[in-house]
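A brief tutorial aside. Many learners find it easier to grasp structure tokens once they have seen a single protein encoded end to end. The record that follows does exactly this for ADP,ATP carrier protein. Read the sequence first, then the structure, and try to relate runs of similar tokens to stretches of the chain.
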Amino acid sequence: MGTYKQSSFAAIPASILVATPDERNEYWGWSLILLYVLQGMARAVYESTNKAVFADFFPEDQSSPAFANCMMQSSTAFFVSFMLQNTLTTEQKGTLAWTVLALAALIFPGYLAASRLRGRASTGLSQSLLS
């Protein structure tokens, strides 16, 4: 699942770096729909995975509010980024695209690291319960 989300999120800034939207390419025209589809696919994986993670880490009565808080914060961040993108210069947009691309590249290694840490933690918990 990590690779699917990673490639969807990485395709968006990569496309900005390859062909910055402007008047010459009609701000991507109909091909812009593809970026919205990629964003939707990545968000679907992100949200479904996060629901499972929040259910694991928060008791039943706290799981839904914790997930709602996370979604509210990420939605606010998306709104602010959409509002601020019109104030950025072309150079700043390129820097932002490289930053998002780098973060997207770290999704899968971060997932693997978290899986290993969780495996170690559950092994340690199992051993302490058995002692």
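Self-check: The longest helix spans residues 32-57. If you spotted this yourself, you are ready for the next section.
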